[in-house]
Amino acid sequence: KQDSEAKDEL
Amino acid sequence: MNVFRLAGDMTHLSSILVLLLKIHTIKSCAGISLKTQELYALVFITRYLDIFDRFTSIYNFLMKLIFLGSSLSIVWYMRRHKAVHRSYDKDQDTFRYQFIVLPCLLLALVINHKLTFKEVMWTFSLYLEAVAILPQLVLLQRTRNIDNLTGQYVFLLGAYRALYLLNWVYRYFTEPGFVRWITWIAGLVQTLLYADFFYYYILSWKNNVKLELPA
Fold first, then answer.
1. What is the ipTM metric for this complex?
2. B179 vs A: CB within 8 A
3. pLDDT single digits (tens) B182-214
4. Is the C or the N end of chain B the one with fewer CB within 10 Å?
């Protein structure tokens, strides 16, 4: 699930 | 969001504002690499493909719009605005795109979390951002007179990366299971590229002399 979690940063 | 992340984003935003200030008010882009600016525009386009279908927060959404808009407008100014374009050091800005873009694309195809278009593009944007500063650093080294705004621009970009590293360290210790190898390694490489510049920037600031990088 890393891929979706990683996108809260810019 | 922690204080390092927010400070990192604000530093990133300031770097862009410093560059826009130079371009918009002084009508000059002397010492600025168009190649680096175009690579940054590509970084934001490929990273924010999900801007309309993945909503995390108003803050993230607005910042994405600002980064996309500002990077595209900087490229537009440097290419299309007559006075700004005249000040562009085209002959010095010789770094080849393909040396950067192709390896990043290949790496993103091989090392990613999921082999889908959006995911590969997102991973590509991380690798690309890590090395997109290279044409700018090469140009700086060739420029005998680095003006204050250009020096500050690169310094703020490097500071933004350093603050993101601190943000990850903080998140690692405060959020259980927070591990992001691809983001971390790309971010670490990116920050290390600034080490040499930082050294000379701080030296020139301490000795109160004009910034000049050794050939």
1. 0.84
2. yes
3. 999 999 999 999 999 999 999 999 999 999 898
4. C
Write out the DSSP string of B164-201.
HHHHHHHHHHHSTT---HHHHHHHHHHHHHTHHHHHHH
Residues 6+ apart with CB under 8 A from B50: A7, B118, B122
DSSP B88-107: --TTT----HHHHHHHHHHH
Q: Which of A2, A8, A9 sits opposite B113 (nearest CB)?
A: A2
Task: Provide the residue type at A5 as one letter.
Answer: E
Residues 1-10 of chain A with CB under 8 A from chain B are 2-3, 5-10
Does B212 reside within a domain? no
Domain for residue B95, yes or no? Answer: yes
Cβ distance of B113 and A3 shorter than 8 Å: yes
CB distance B64–A10 less than 8 Å? yes
